[in-house]
Amino acid sequence: MTTDPIHRTIDAVWRIESAKVIAVLARRTRDVGLAEDLAHDALVAALEQWPKTGVPEKPGAWLLAAARRRAIDAHRRDRAFDRNREEIAARFEAEPAPDLDAALDDEVGDDLLRLIFTTCHPALSTEARTALTLRLLGGLTTDEIARAFLVPEPTVAQRIVRAKRTLTEKAVPFEVPRGPDLLSRLGSVLAVVYLIFNEGYAATAGDDLMRPALCEEALRLGRILAELAPAEPEVHGLAALMEIQASRARARVGPSGEPILLLDQNRARWDHVLIRRGLAALDRAEALGEPRGPYVLQAAIAACHARARTADATDWPRIADYYAELARVAPSPVVELNRAMAVAMASGPAAGLALLDPLTTEPTLHDYPYLSSARGDLLAKLGRHAEALPAFERAAALTRNARERAWLLARARECADASEPSPSTDPP
Question: Which of 355, 297, 303, 372 is nearest to 330 (CA)?
Answer without folding.
Answer: 297
